## 1
Amino acid sequence: TKDWNGIDQVVLRSPHGASARVSLYGGQVTSWRNDHGEELLFTSSKAIFKAPKAMRGGIPICFPQFGNGGSTELHGFARNKIWMIEDSPPPLHLNDSHGKSFVDLLLKPSDDDMKCWPHSFEFRLRVSLAADGVLNMISRIRNVNGKPFSFSFAYHTYFSVSDISEVRIEGLETLDYLDNLCQKERFTEQGNAITFESEVDRVYVSAPNAIAILDHEKKRTFVIRKEGLPDIVVWNPWEKKSRAMGDLGDEEYKQMVCVDGAAIVRPITLKPGEEWTGRMQLKVVPSSFCSDH
Ligand code: BG6
């Protein structure tokens, strides 16, 4: 199917009614719905589905850099490129296709990309939807260069929530984080679940491989599992920043939270011929009685 700007999107469907949409622009997942057709990812009502920026929502991919300060644009160029569908990618040494609906995408650097980041790579992305509606993303990045290179990476995931003030994130307690609002100064999180009452923009260092986002009002919990991705980014722009962003409604920060599986604090280095794999799995479950109280 085509998206608003005529760019191809691939729709994945589970036998029970769940679905996911992946745009070839950025390899970005733009929708993930449960068996009842409810959208689980946030998309701004002011999102722009057009180059040169990723649309505000879904799961843009940050590569080869997260944030600014590197040699490429903010969050890297991968989210602003047209990816190709690859019919027969090299085998995944993980049993990921059985009983699933999936698509394989490929990104290789253009001449322009090579000007700001002079490294040859092949970036393979598999997005799959399991019969139970679980969304799986597997990124494989290979160095096809003659010399080593380093990169950072994030699945910049915009979750849809009913009210940010009622949201709690569990799994990051007592971890160290770098605060992007304080020149990346390092702090230590206290023992409680994370809640939101102002702008948050942090990179939690060496986070556990499972994190939960509890949406009290919707009585549901997102479970994020990750492999090869040591860090977790938590971002909510809150009121002032939302007003300054042209592609986000003034009040929409209440309906979103970004929680990204990422590799940022220690960039990944690949020698010639080496490949890195970073995997994220998203699942939504009803909140249990215990976590509700
Ligand atoms: C977050 C960053 O992850 O992404 C923020 O930490 C940034 O600083 C935000 O503003 C959104 O970035 P962009 O380029 O999608 O507007």
Note: Residues 18 and 35 are 4 Å apart (CA to CA).
## 2
Amino acid sequence: MSPSSAGSAIDRSRTSYGDEGFSRYLRRAFLASAGYDDVDLDRPIIGIAVTRSDYNTCHRDMPGLLEAVRRGVLEAGGLPMEFPTISLGEILTSPTSMLYRNLMAMDTEEMIQALPMDGAVLLGGCDKTVPAQLMAAASADKPVLLEVVGPMLTGSWRGQRLGACTDCRRLWGDHRGGVLDETEITEARGELVTTAGTCAVMGTASTMASLTEVLGMMLPGGATPPASSGARLRHGALTGRRIVEMAREGRGLPREILTRPAFENAIKVLAALGGSTNALVHLLAVARRAGVDLALDEFDTVAAHVPLIVDLKPSGRLYMEDLHRSGGIPAVLKQLAPHLDLTTTGATGTALGELLADVPEHQEWQTAITTLERPLSRPGALAVLTGSLAPNGAIIKTSAASPHLLRHTGPAFVVDASQDIAAVLDDPDNEITEEHVLVLRYSGPVAAGFPESGALPIPAKLARQGVRDMVRISDARMSGTSYGTVVLHCDPEAAVGGPLAAVENGDLIRLDVPARRVDLLIDQATLEERLTRYSRAEPPARGWRRLYAQTVLPASQGADLDFL
Ligand code: FES
Ligand code: MG
């Protein structure tokens, strides 16, 4: 029954007392106090990382999912052992959950290594939890499967179907524009986030769940079952059973699964989904840990021929429950098969091509997915830019931008992250026009932990005139649920002397997405002269924020800490 002749995981890993026999004795003595005997302990032990928290409403239903995974582990002859890690709820974590992604990755990796287990199931869902867990898995040398809580269901207000959080942003924009009054915006609030689970659109959580499935670190069909569904619980049980097999076989280590072809498949699916811009940063970080050489511009080149075929907000019309009813990620992969490496083998141990043989061809009722012959838009959902404003790269989600702004030249209006941004933009005395390019700086990883502030609000005066999009450029990220003509992740960031630091109000900026350029139209000598006046800010005085600011890698390299 034991996974290896060296005995149970309880015995193979040891607490250091200078007496191995005593360590084994004491472990079993303490576990006896919890009701475990040798029959329990001499079998594959499966650690289950639990991230339920009152501060993470998306993970509210995790106890039920945990029970399902436990049941699967027991059915397959393993012993489930729950352990907690940090939980990152997107909305309640200040100043931004991204500041703690690497901390969660460290916590998770270290616990997988430190605690006796033959394999692990990592339960996550909300935006940063899945990337952190993937990063941890890539660094761990035990079989690992990820399982997510699943998306929330949509709500409805005055006949409008609503889902977090693209609609949250749209309604708030309407409120700022004077279309919805205080009573209406408050009433709508109760219908935006209606159940447990992750955001209902193709935001970061949905994107990362989908890509985890594509990478092969989650069993097929795991990304889309809603949090409240039996399908979610059945997938949890399946995951519990499979991880026991993986632990017994000692195969399916994350580094065997996270190969370069697997990442290339993930990049192509990201384009087909019109997925979150945050996925670029997260995939770069996971690849780096997995020892896969992946560069930012490959997100553009690898996916150069893959069109948008999934009709979910913010790029399209629908919600995750619709994608689930349309067959989920396996149905998306079926359509994309001509573009994919079908020899990749994830946690199932079966090649992708073989798995897809069992997936039916596209049917009309699969409304959230279309075919390669009838794509929703041309290739290029995510474009990687370079230019004098972003020598090391910047990105834009073309699929969620306004076509008329993809080539635009306009004067800069600059705000620094330290300012009260909404107040500055809404000041009736400012002379912002819809031709302006809004520049936000000091919002990169070093400056601020890389918050999601890049989709700056449209100045109230313009919003009331009906303007809903403008070109915005920053070293920040934006939420996967956001939309607009927003250039993000400018690298190097302003805080380390990147060119954003040199921009002055009125400077002309030219965005040319077809040419993949973003440029500040001042001469090089002026740019350099302005940057000589720049001085780098002191890092925070102590603690995690100091370690983070001193060791975080730039956005174009995944923003992991340099020593991880
Ligand atoms: Fe948790 Fe959107 S806030 S997934
Ligand atoms: Mg988000």
Note: The chain has a mean pLDDT of 95.
